[in-house]
Amino acid sequence: MRQLKPEYQWLLPAGLESAVPARRSTRDWVVDLLCFVLGYGFTLLVTIDLLREHPSVVPEWDAAPTWLIWLDFAVGTIAALGLWWRRGRWLIPLAVFSAVTSLFTVAAAITCMIMLFTVAVHRRFAIMAVFAGAAVLTNAAFPLLRPEADRPYWETMAWGVVFIVIVCLWGMVVRSRRQLVRSLRDRAERAESEQQLRVAQARSLERNRIAREMHDVLAHRISLLSLHAGALEIRPDAAPQDVATAAGVIRASAHQALQDLREVIGVLRAESPEGTPEPPQPTLGALPALADESRSAGVKVRLDVRIEPATVPDGTGRTAYRIVQEGLTNARKHAPGTTVDVAVDGAVGDGLTIDIRNPWPLLNPSVAIPGTGTGLIGLTERATLAGGHLKHGRTPDNQFALTAWLPWPS
Description:
Blueprint: H1 26-51, H2 66-82, H3 91-101, H4 109-122, H5 125-145, H6 153-234, H7 240-269, H8 287-296, E1 300-305, H9 314-334, E2 339-347, E3 351-359, H10 375-385, E4 389-394, E5 399-406
Parallel strand pairs: 1-2
Antiparallel strand pairs: 2-3, 3-5, 4-5
């Protein structure tokens, strides 16, 4: 399990802060060494000074008995060694030890301040407040147990409270800064993760769009190939002129299919300015050419466009073109030899209506053209994304109808 750094253990729930072992970094080793040198160095300095006949560092406590000086040194040594284990689970026991011994110790004063500062940095405010209150109480009792020679009680106590408040405030500032850094880091990581997710979603949407585009473009061409190849298979004794004509149509359709495939794949390689359509993007103006292609394959198409294609918005025109293209492809697949009626009508504000009808086939086609069965599903999705709707099915007069409505804003 990944370990939290000591400066981030305040994020853990209550009761778990001291249960997580801290992994000490190089910076932590340097800080702990500095704290030990300061704490134990002060202990040695005070002890040596108090053992002299006339102390110069802490002359206020020159009347202390020898046994108390050595006891003070032992307590200061233990507290200073405890600084190496103040991170993690041992912080609270060490802080309690420092709070109790601060009733009488002089040599461990710096160590006790460091321990209180550590509590303010690594623990919640409530825990820090308890130890700060305990420090104030022991500070109030200290001048009674070890009074200073030339300083009144209230002055000694006031200076002790000042130091306690400074240490606690300093620790709270460090803790707040670490919280802020942690919050900013989390926000940055979250923003990066969200950006990666958006990129992945954009890639997925682009792949789906390319797949739909390839289906719309190639299904139409390949169905023409399959239809002519099936005719040649059924009529092997056809006249040479008919065979040559069918072969020419197959060659032209195959060439056009390859060209369309190159254009579709080119979408993945070329970046177009944002907001401009990417090829291939035919609109309603290309419907006559689409109908002619189907007629050249032997499909009877009656095209009735009752609007001016140039007045239709490009996005609506592209969607309408794909709907007509898929409708003609389905008619060739499932109802060969029938007449397909295509009607496009509408007006600004009323919307654009596409109606494609052909007689319901009485017999299964002799040459089945394979398909995925998802063409109408894709058309429905296209129409829905464009703000319109699409319906298809068998009509009471035994026809298959494909009807779509697309918005045509003013």
